[in-house]
Amino acid sequence: MTIRSFVTAAGLALVVALAGCTSTSFRVFTSDYGSKRDAGYSLPSIPISKVPRKYHRQIVRYDTKEKPGTIIVDTSDKFLYFVMPEGKAMRYGIGVGREGFEWSGTARIAAKREWPVWTPPAAMIKRQPELAKYAGGMPPGLNNALGARALYLHNKRGDTGYRLHGTPEWASIGRAMSSGCIRMINQDVIDLYDRTDIGAKVIVK
């Protein structure tokens, strides 16, 4: 082998090695979107093949100074990160606020609810009068707008009105369609709910 050939081969080997080192995904949970029983409800399976793979729940490399247990919401890329030890995070695909309803800031998880009641705000009812029938609350269930779980966000001024919540509208993941809340596939919000503590820091950017 000539010196030039050796250098070329060594260079290719280095590129391959570096490519392996920069892989960000450690495990993808594509098989976790099947039907399941939960608190008496039959949660339907998600046609996960129709959801882009990048939005499937997965453990990824994630460098941050925030402590484990912190939630970081990237509204631009439509990802939610639950910070884990050793430079890793559980990453979920999300839906975010549509134009005019975007927001950012720091909050905390003040409350957690399984199969919550959804009460549309007065401003939403004004925009969508057909929601007036739920002014007293939409009962929990498979068609409830908050889905299987809701995490309630508060800041120094109190309730922000925003939630991290499930949705029956799985096709909205990866899109900007909500009124500001962060939407998740029901199977994903159940997973996040079980990992998250009351008082956890939430950063939305």
TrEMBL record:
Task: List each coiled-coil range.
Answer: none
A Pfam family: YkuD
Q: Where is the active site?
A: 165, 181
- In its UniProt entry, the species of origin is given as Nitratireductor arenosus
Give the PANTHER family listed for this entry: L,D-TRANSPEPTIDASE, L,D-TRANSPEPTIDASE ERFK_SRFK-RELATED
Q: Please, one GO biological process term? A: regulation of cell shape
Q: Which family does it belong to?
A: Belongs to the YkuD family.
Query: Taxonomic lineage per UniProt?
Result: Bacteria, Pseudomonadati, Pseudomonadota, Alphaproteobacteria, Hyphomicrobiales
- Pathway(s) the chain acts in: Cell wall biogenesis; peptidoglycan biosynthesis
Which key words are in the record? Answer: Cell shape, Cell wall biogenesis/degradation, Glycosyltransferase, Hydrolase, Peptidoglycan synthesis, Signal, Transferase
- Which Gene3D superfamilies does the entry link to? L,D-transpeptidase catalytic domain-like
N-terminal signal peptide = 1-19
- UniProt cross-references to InterPro entries, sorted A to Z: LD-transpeptidase, LD_TPept_cat_dom, Transpep_catalytic_dom
- Name all L,D-TPase catalytic domain ranges: 69-205
Q: Name one GO cellular component term.
A: extracellular region
Q: What protein name does the entry list?
A: L,D-transpeptidase family protein
One Gene Ontology molecular-function label:
peptidoglycan L,D-transpeptidase activity
